[in-house]
Amino acid sequence: MRAFDLIKAIALSAVVLSATAGCGILPKEAADAQSQSRGAGQQGPPAVEVAIARTGKIRTEPEYTGTTLPLQEVSLRAQVEGRILKLLVDVGDRVKQGQVLAQQDDTILRTALNQEQAELAALKAEVARARNQVSNARARVEQVRLEFQQAQSDSQRQQQLVREGAVAEQAAEQARTNAQSAAKVLKATEEEVRTEQQAVAAASDRVNAQQAAIAQAQEQLSYANIRSPIDGVVTQKLTEQGNFLQANGEVLRLGDFRRVKVNVEISELALANLRVGQTVRVRLDAFPDRTFTGKVSRISPAADRTARLVPVEVIIPNDSGRIGSGLLARVSFESNAASRVVIPQTAVVEETEEQVSQKLAKSLPPSEAKGQNSRLPTPDSRLPNTATVFVINGEKVTARSVKLGERLDGRVEILSGLQPGERFVARSGRPLKNGETVRLSVLSESQQQES
User: Fold this and answer.
1) Which residue, among 108, 335, 57, has the nearest Cα to 223 in the 3D structure?
2) Is the per-residue pLDDT at 40 higher than 60?
3) Residue 254's beta-bridge partner residues?
4) pLDDT > 70: what percent of the chain?
5) How many whole angstroms separate alpha carbon 418 and alpha carbon 51?
6) β 411-416/340-344 pair status
7) What is this structure's pTM?
8) Helix intervals (H) in 321-418
9) Which of 41, 76, 84, 275 sits at 20 to 30 Å (Cα–Cα) from 388?
10) Closest CA to 325 of 229, 227, 236
11) Residues whose CB is less than 8 angstroms from the CB of residue 78 and which lie 6 or more positions away in sequence, other chains included
């Protein structure tokens, strides 16, 4: 019985082992090896997202808001009173310097000019009469001078005859008296000439004054045609045709939009980095797809005493004339900081110095690694704040040691070790190894996208 039982047990064990092998149950070592082989076959090369290194600035410059204004704005006012007969432009019309934009009733002004011109004609006639009087007085002077010369000759001749005893003393005395009388008459007529000349000068002064009055009246008449003092655009119409305007009444407002200005207020702490002529970037909500380049034209010397804000004026070219007044503008001033390569924080693998040194040692060929330990960076000689970035080289990745700069909002500056235009791994599904083969995800950038 015992021999029979032993044979039965052996046969039963053989059946069980055969069944177990048929059902795929293997020893632990074989199962583990098979499992690892299947896992490796299913995983394959890791998928990575590749990006292209570009330069930029880690910090976004603050934006200051302001409102667009024309470079020059003019309030066009009536200079004389009168009814508006014609209003020749409307809002939005472009105008040229000297162009007539409105016309006032000039009837009263023209009547006043005619009166002034008539007064001038009367004064000119008065001058002519005064000059004629001068001519007549000069003629009398010449006649009296001749009479005086004749009387003086007669007196001298009579005195000679008296000395010779040819005539009586009484005749000589009479001749002397006549000569003295002629001298007095000559003096009086010469004084009359001077008086008439003064009358001519006074009349001439009145003519000059009247001519100035006429010029003023003509200028007043010209004000009835209201002209544009600038090249610009009509921004507002403040009266209508037919209205009566007093002197200084506002008619239109004009703006010169060949250049546009934006006034912003900046903190006194940012004042040290600003200068007149500095280039600025301006974004307008009205044109979201465009960025305009302007310049700082004026920095106020006085800050607000309460808010400590400094007014700054920025000028933007507007050759196309599309930028109008009252648009919201966002101004950012260019920083003096240099542009550097900026990459996502996810692309950086930060390691200890010992790990980096070991990786650099392993990357050397065996023939060069021997005796080259002195070439490897030591903790004292390594640049601070270093990390690793994986650069794409064909279908493989190469570990690159880089020096890190400032970090902000998930981005980091690369001070050295990565050049603009190089392709690097921005994200990976699992940790990478130097020289490992990878496959690019559909989110990866290509060289065509860069160009």
Assistant:
1) 108
2) no
3) 74, 234
4) 80
5) 12
6) antiparallel
7) 0.54
8) 353-363, 366-369
9) 41
10) 236
11) 104, 223, 226, 245, 246, 247, 248, 249, 250, 251
What's the pLDDT tens digit per position in 113-131?
999 999 989 888 888 888 8
Main-chain phi, psi angles of 170, to 5 degrees? -65, -40
- Say how far apart CA 104 and CA 79 lie, in whole Å: 10
Which residues have CB under 8 Å from 121's CB, separation 6+?
none
pLDDT tops 70 at residue 107: yes
**Tokens encoding 185:** 């008459």
**In terms of pLDDT, which residue wins out, 98 or 145?**
98
The neighbouring-strand residues paired with 398 are: 391
Mean pLDDT (the chain) is 81
Rounded alpha-carbon distances, angstroms, from residue 295 to 73, 282, 300, 320: 20, 10, 15, 18
Say whether pLDDT at 55 is over 50: yes
Q: Helix, strand or coil for residue 40? A: helix
Name residues whose C-beta falls within 8 Å of residue 241's C-beta, 6 or more positions apart in sequence: 84, 85, 86, 87
Residue 309 φ/ψ, nearest 5 degrees: -105, 145
Segment 376-385 mean pLDDT = 47
Q: Taking the CA of residue 323 as centre, how many other CA atoms within 13 Å lie in the half-sphere pointing to its CB?
A: 29
Which has the higher per-residue pLDDT, 22 or 321? Answer: 321
pLDDT tens-digit readout, 141-167: 788 788 778 877 877 877 777 777 766
pLDDT digit string (tens) for 302-349?
998 898 999 999 999 998 889 999 999 999 987 666 778 999 999 898
Q: What is the pLDDT of residue 241?
A: 93
**The one-letter amino acid at 105:** D
Distance between CA atoms of residues 88 and 365, nearest Å: 88
Spatial neighbors of 397 by CB under 8 A, at least 6 apart, are: 48, 390, 391, 425, 432, 434, 435, 436, 438
Give residue 113's Cα distance to chain centre: 47
The phi, psi pair for 95, rounded to 5°, reads: -130, 160
134-166 per-residue burial string, b: 16 or more CB within 10 A, e: under 16 = beebbebbeebbebbeebbebbeebbeebeeee
Q: What are phi and psi of 62, to 5 degrees?
A: -65, 145
Q: Does residue 105 surpass a pLDDT of 90?
A: yes
**DSSP one-letter code for 23:** T
Residue 28 — φ and ψ, nearest 5°? -60, -45
CA gap 235, 70 in Å, rounded = 10
Q: What are phi and psi of 163, to 5 degrees?
A: -65, -30
pLDDT score recorded for residue 29: 39
Indicate if the alpha-carbon torsion angle 15, 21, 24, 27 is positive or negative: positive
Handedness of CA 316, 289, 284, 407 (dihedral sign): negative
